[in-house]
Amino acid sequence: MIRHKGVVVHPDEITQTWKNVILGSDIDFIGVHPVGGEGSHTRVRDIAENGLPGECADNARELVKHGVGLEYELHVMSLLLPRSLFAEHPEYFRLDENGNRNADYNCCASDADALEIISRNACELAKKLPSTTHRYCFWLDDVRDKCCHCPECSRLSVSDQALAVYNAVQRGIRRADSLGRQSYLAYCGAVELPEHVTPEEGVYLEYAPFDRDFRKPMSDPANAASARSARELAAFFGADESKVLEYWLDNSMFSGWKKPPKRLDVDPELIKRDLEFYDSLGYGAVTTFACYLGADYEELWGAPDLGGYAVFDK
Ligand SMILES: [Zn+2]
Predict the structure, then answer these.
(1) How far apart are the C-alpha atoms of 217 and 227, rounded to whole Å?
(2) The model's pTM
(3) Which CATH architecture has domain 4-75+113-143+158-301?
(4) Any idea which of 50-54, 97-101, 231-235 has the lowest mean pLDDT?
(5) Which residue ranges make up each domain of the chain?
(6) How far is the CA of 194 from the centre of ligand 1 (A)?
(7) Cα of 151 from ligand 1 centre, angstroms
(8) Rounded distance from Cα 210 to ligand 1 centre (Å)
(9) Which of 59, 125, 133, 175 has the most neighbouring CB atoms within 10 Å?
(10) Are 283 and 234 in contact (CB under 8 A)?
(11) Residue 187 Cα to ligand 1 middle (Å)
């Protein structure tokens, strides 16, 4: 049963409007997600060191005061395993498709020292960016299939390698937050079930169906593969602790990740049917990207129509 409903926004988009929507509706947690792509880890470091920007920090504080959960959804491999270590320890990094050690993305998922460094840095990051829901989302790089091809890793699938790293992250988070739980982000190449690596206690599923058809509900045959992943992954990790990360309100994607934001055009019937679908699988939490709906959006288009995602007569 869906017990928690969230939105994921950029750090500078926690507006007064969002605050009022969340406080007046059944949305009970907010995820902070710095703009991705090149340099995204420097934006994470900035928040970790300086906090959320201006008025957004006040709004976030007030939401937390009213019991709304605050968590961070972050691609942070460059912080967990700094690429500067490559010069002395190329073995920490992946053997790429051409047989070369390469610090471009992710890491070697079989190198015990690399995993220990990842663990230690996850602990430090969890202290700086504590999650009030105790759910942590410290993810691999935002790329598809950039895994390690060394002899040890070659025996592991993309999903196995991702889970090996998330297990290491989980061990670090637990040292900072005894209730902390790290997400296994099932996304792009990592939607297949892990086969050789087992989730350690506390690792939960976060399923982001990026490859779905966004114009058709999950129950439509066009989304059969994504629906099957949703079902199999939930059964593997345990549905009740699992979270869906959807794109229903992802105006950054609908705007081609380019400002100015386009007018959000959502399909209330699709959202309703998808919520029923995830509920029927037993997912305990759903959230959706809701980026590009900040102050600049409101100036152009007024308060966004959330297509029935937020229920106000709670
Ligand atoms: Zn490897």
Answers:
(1) 10
(2) 0.96
(3) Alpha-Beta Barrel (3.20)
(4) 50-54
(5) 4-75+113-143+158-301
(6) 16
(7) 7
(8) 26
(9) 125
(10) yes
(11) 20
